[in-house]
Amino acid sequence: MRPFLKWPGNKYRIVNYIKAKLPNGNRLIEPFVGSGSVFLNTNYNEYLLADNNEDLINLYITLQKEGENFISFCRSFFIPDNNTKEKYYYYRRLFNITKDPRLKSALLIYLNRHGYNGLVRYNKNGVYNVPFGKYKRPYFPEAEMHYFWYKSQKAIFIRGDFKDIMAKTCRGDVIYCDPPYVPLSNTSNFTNYSTGGFTLKHQHELTKLALKLSNQDIPVLISNHDTKLTRLIYKNADITRIKVQRYISCNGAKRTKVNEILAFFKGKGSGF
Ligand SMILES: C[S@@+](CC[C@H](N)C(=O)[O-])C[C@H]1O[C@@H](n2cnc3c(N)ncnc32)[C@H](O)[C@@H]1O
Hints:
Radius of gyration: 19 Å
Bound molecules: S-adenosylmethionine
CATH class of the largest domain: Alpha Beta
CATH superfamily of the largest domain: Vaccinia Virus protein VP39
Number of domains: 2
Largest sheet: 7 strands, mixed
Helix content: 25-40%
Number of helices: 10
C-alpha cells in the first residue's frame, strides 16, 4: 500500500528490497518514519514509529485516534474552490499560525497534495513555505488513509530525535533507519553540509548507535544513497547495493543518477 503523504526520500519504490533484508522480530522501530512506506508494507506485531517532525507525528496520532471522522474532515478541504493560488496561500498561512492540532493535521494533507511537487519544506524559523503546485485535480488519498488508520492500531507514534528513540529498544526489536540522505557533493565538503539540519556528525552517530545495538543483539538496517562516503561509514555492516537509479538534483540545475545502499548491522550471534 502506498503512503497517504507524498514525502521526500520515501522508500515505497524499494520497499521489497528493504523487506528482504529485515529480519523477523516482535516489534519494528522506525526512528525516521516519514510517510511510513516500510511500516505499511511489513507485518510485525508492534511498531514504534518516530520522527522529529512534530506536525507529522501529530497528524498520525490524530488519524489513529479518530479514524473516519478525521478522514471526512480532511476530505472537506479537497474541493475545486480550494484549488486556487489564493486559497492555497490562505490555508498555508492558517497552517503556520493555528494552535489547533486537528486543523493543522488536516491542513498538512491539503498542503501536501496541493503544494509544489510533493515538497515538504520549512524555513529556519519553522515556517512551512512550499509554493502552490498547480495540479488539475489534486488526489484525496482516502483509501491510503484508511489503510494507515487500520495498521496504526498496532503502532505507537513518538515525536523525537533518533538518538532518544534508539535508546528505547530492547531484544526482540528490529530497527529500520532511513535518515535524510548524505549529500552528493565532494567528500571534502561533507563535514559542514547538512540536509535539513542532519549533518555528517549525525550520520556517524547513527552508525555508532547501530553498531552498539547490534552488539546487544538488536539488528539495525540503514538505507542511504550509495556513495563512496556511505560505503566507508557502513564498512562494518553487511552491504546491499540496490540498482534503482534516481535522478537527484544537486547543485541547483545539475541532475545526477544515484543508487541506494542498505547497510545491515546484524545482531551478534543472534541467528539473525
Ligand atoms: C528520508 S525521510 C524518511 C522517509 C520514510 N522512510 C518514507 O518512506 O517516507 C527522513 C525522515 O527523517 C526525519 N528526521 C530528520 N532528522 C531527524 C532526527 N534528528 N531525528 C528523527 N527524525 C529525523 C525527517 O523529518 C524525515 O521524515
